[in-house]
Amino acid sequence: MLLVAVASLTFALAAPADESWERYKSRFMSADGRILDSGNGDVSHSEGQGFGMLLAEAQGDREAFDRLWQWTRLHLARTDVALFSWRYDPTNVPPVADPNNASDGDILIAWALQRAASRWQEPRYAQAAAMIREAIAEYLVVQRGGYRVLLPGVQGFRGEDYVDLNLSYWVMPALLEFAQAEPDAGWETLVEDGLRLLEQGRFGRYRLPTDWLRLDADGSLTPAPGWPPRFGFDAVRIPLYLAWADQLDRPGVSPILALWNDPARQPPPAWIDVYSEARAEYAASRGVLAIRVLAGRDRRAMPAGLAPGDDYYSASLLLLARLAQRESVPAPD
Questions:
Q1: Is 104 annotated in the active site?
Q2: Per CATH, is 17-138 categorized as 1.50.10.10?
Q3: CA dist 72 → 109, 110, 161, 174, 314 (Å)
């Protein structure tokens, strides 16, 4: 049973104050609780708010957690469903120009609230988490092509005979904990079918997943039209979440590690086209290298902290990889 894996995700007491977390807050978190995407003009995303809330909870930093959650509720919460608009741009009028959600952001926020409810024994967090889970299940989880799938958003991403998916939106450890909270709600099937999609939805000589995947009504899988067929900035999160959920034995992991560890191409490229094998002319970020360490189970090689050149996304991946390592891998003797 996949739920066995969730046993390792219990909420440990907060680690001693983490200097990297303090640096992260000072660089990427505004005074009112907005996480700034420094690589994209300081816009904000529901995903970034979820990352920040997870990291604040893990550090036992309730003051930061509450600021992040308050900003998220005030500026991203939709009024029609218990989900969150995906993007906030302070230079736009209004700042939220597109009300559509991003399901990974919704999952991350709900997971952070669920964890915070356990840590601080706060019923309001638990109630909010339950409402978001209910909305995700109602509006974003559908049956298509023989799979139970997670839609990327309420609007778009589907046609009469297909859906477009992003496997990095399956935040596996969160979904397993949702299944533990609601054993009969179908979360475990969503995880199992996400793992099946990862096994079947790999392409090219390197057998890599692409950032975006099209699932046709007959169950066939191809890279989704409209996006480059790349193992890129989204798909790098797949091994992060698999490691966190203790699912590194899955067939889709070893080809990713083979790409990242190719001795002829170090440091590894930020992305690769799965068909043409064209590669980015710049290297993967330190956050991606931290995921490589996590997926390779090499505890000693994990980067110690943030560097001046780490942007929001790299810094987030690095701190999340360190958190996943702490929660998913037994400490050495």
A1: yes
A2: yes
A3: 9, 12, 35, 19, 22
